[in-house]
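Tip: read the tokens left to right.
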């Protein structure tokens, strides 16, 4: 799978945990198995936490938003959050959890995240993300955002 970003990401902090998407940007996802490409664009006002990563893990992989070399995965977090919130619903963002996680991995690669760091992040979403995929109530509590 390959992800190509376009536009400029613009997210603004709402509070210490929640960020709101602004502007026009997204990704085009393609696979080797098909010539079809899928465009994924967050909608204006989408709120997310940019990656539900415990602060203790930030020492290894860096915070989702910041100015260190470790912090270049913010856009991947927004796309992954979007697919986790709306992936089980019919429509534009419908997908499987595996697809959402694979898109996350492809985004990390496109953003230049090191191989060991993206392998660790991908493993974490595969192991711990299942209980959150499509569960708006649980995601709302985790992130303090009402997705209804």
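Filled-in amino acids:
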């Amino acid at each position: 799978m390959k992800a190509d970003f376009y536009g400029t990401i613009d997210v603004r902090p709402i509070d210490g945990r929640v960020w709101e998407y602004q502007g026009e940007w997204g990704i085009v996802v393609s696979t080797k198995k098909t010539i079809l490409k899928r465009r994924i664009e967050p909608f204006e006002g989408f709120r997310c936490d940019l990656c539900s990563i415990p602060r203790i893990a930030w020492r290894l992989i860096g915070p989702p938003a910041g100015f260190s070399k470790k912090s270049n995965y913010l856009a991947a977090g927004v796309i992954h959050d979007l697919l986790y919130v709306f992936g089980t619903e019919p429509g534009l963002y419908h997908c499987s959890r595996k697809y959402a996680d694979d898109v996350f991995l492809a985004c990390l690669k496109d953003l230049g995240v090191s191989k060991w760091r993206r392998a660790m992040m991908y493993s974490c979403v595969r192991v711990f993300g299942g209980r959150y995929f499509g569960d708006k109530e649980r995601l709302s509590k985790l992130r303090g955002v009402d997705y209804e």
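The helical segments are 58-61, 74-86, 97-110, 115-128, 136-143. The mean pLDDT is 79.
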